[in-house]
Known about the structure:
- The protein is an all-alpha fold.
- It has a domain at 99-130.
- The protein is built from three helices and no strands.
- It has helices at residues 98-105, 108-130, 151-154.
- It is elongated and about 135 Å long.
- The mean pLDDT is 75.
Amino acid sequence: MVMDTRPKIKVRASRVRREFGAPFKFKDRDADPASTDQGLSASYLSCNSYSDKNYTLKKAELDNAVQAVPELVDGSSQTDWKHPVNASVQYEPRSISAEEAKAAQDTPEFEEFVKDALPRFELALQQNIIMDVFFDDWGVLGDEDTNFGSKSDSHLKEYQSFTDLQYSKDKTVTCVDWHPMVSEACVLFNHQLH
Length: 194
C-alpha cells in the first residue's frame, strides 16, 4: 500500500477576462529542427502526406444471392410403453368348399407349383430329422481355461484328405453337403471339367 509522505501541491491558474474571445488564426508549423525561429521545434515530429508507391488497392467483387425458402425440420418422438399387456387377435379364416379345393388341385398351375416346391420341403424336413436345431451348442463347449495354450488348442491338424491321385486328379468338387450323423460320405460330380 502506498502512503502519502509529503503535503499535496495546489496550483491555481487564472486569466484576465478581457483576453477572452480574442481573434485567432491557425497555420501549419514545420517540425524541422534546423529552423530556430519557431522555438521548440525539436519537440515536434511532422507526418506529411505523400503518395506510397508500394501500396495497391485491391477491389474484390462478390456475387451473392439470397432466396427465402421455408425451413425443413425433421422431428421425431417416441413414447415409453409403460404397461405391456398380452393381446390376441382372432379372425375368421378364408375357407373354400370341397368342390372348389378339388378343382384348384386339378389345375396344371398347382401341379407345377408342387413340383417346384417339393425338393425344398424335402430338404428342410431331412435337415430337421438329421440335426436338432434347438440343441444348445454353447452349453456343451469345453472350458476355455483348461486347454488354453495347449498344442491341440493352438494348432489345427488335418483330419482327412479328400484327394485321390487316381480318381480325383484334375477334378473339381462342385457341391458338398454336410451330414453330421452318418460317418460315411460320398462325393458325386455331375460332369467332368476339362
